[in-house]
Design goal:
The protein has nine helices and ten strands. The chain has about 240 residues and is an alpha/beta fold. The strands form two sheets. Strands 6-7-8-3-9-10 form a six-stranded mixed sheet, sandwiched between helices. Helix 3 packs parallel to helix 6. The longest helix has 16 residues.
Length: about 240
């Protein structure tokens, strides 16, 4: 049984449909990428899985259980956490206070402080800033805080929406390095990125979304094949699914 199994997912905003055929399977501990142009529906897809955007059609099974009609808080408690685009940390609160907010998503109420300490071990840069206001952190540090806060809920699957946005190449390497370590600890990850090469360097499989449809699945070795990559990304060739 897959950890996450999404089929025929449709979603949108009011009368405007944005996602027409969202599907994805994620096995425990797997890292899957999602790429696609601006406005393709990537964030809508993640939002619909996390319960933040209402799905109008389709099935979403997480751990064998249907989560399509559940609210976002219950979905987090089942072990599926989303780090949305733009980080969404609380800039007026301290780093520590932001981390404590992640505790509300925990299934187990015991071991809260231990969970925070374990997460902060992954992000040494946050340790020195624990009592500082989160809004004073650099962009890369804020991104790490947003990921750390999601991890405090001890998710089985962590979904990240464009974690590299606005970060310099070196900081991106730091953030992606942390993703590898999170995966090593057994957590499954979905990463949405605009930059195909970047996500394909860490993901075994990468889905391409265009105009609300999952159009192709790229494997790591496809990163070398510029023609195939461009065809999948821009839809200039045949669809690969
Ligand atoms: N809250 C919203 N209300 C209305 N329309 C929305 C909303 N959010 C997104 N849309 C529309 O849905 C479409 C898909 O947006 P979405 O954010 O899912 O794309 P995306 O692939 O994540 O793009 P990007 O790469 O720019 O982040 C766009 O046309 C966008 O204008
Ligand atoms: Mg987006």
């Amino acid at each position: 049984m897959s950890l996450l199994n999404v089929k025929d997912l449709q979603a949108g905003y009011g009368k405007v449909q944005v996602l027409f055929n969202g599907h994805i399977k994620v096995e425990p501990g797997e890292l899957v990428g999602i790429v696609g142009p601006n406005g393709a529906g990537k964030s809508t897809f993640l939002g619909a899985i996390a319960g933040a955007v209402k799905a109008s059609h389709g099935t979403i099974e997480f751990g064998g259980e249907s989560i399509r009609s559940k609210n976002p808080e219950d979905i987090v408690r089942l072990g599926l956490a989303l780090v949305p685009e733009g980080r969404a940390i609380f800039t007026d609160l301290t780093v520590n206070e932001n981390l404590r907010l992640g505790l509300t998503g925990r299934r187990e109420k015991s071991g809260a402080q231990k969970a925070i300490e374990e997460v902060i071990d992954l992000f040494p840069v946050l340790t020195t800033h624990r009592s500082h206001q989160a809004g004073l952190l650099s962009g890369g540090q804020q991104q790490q805080l947003a990921i750390a806060r999601a991890l405090v809920s001890e998710p089985k699957l962590l979904m990240l929406d464009e974690p590299s946005l606005g970060l310099s190449p070196t900081v991106i390497q730091d953030v992606f390095g942390v993703l590898n370590r999170i995966q090593d600890q057994g957590t499954a990850i979905i990463v949405v990125e605009q930059r195909a090469h970047l996500v394909m360097s860490i993901a075994a499989r990468t889905l391409v979304i265009r105009e609300g449809h999952v159009r192709a699945t790229l494997l790591r070795e496809d990163a070398q094949d510029e023609a195939r990559l461009a065809a999948a990304y821009f839809g200039t060739g045949e669809d690969l699914e």
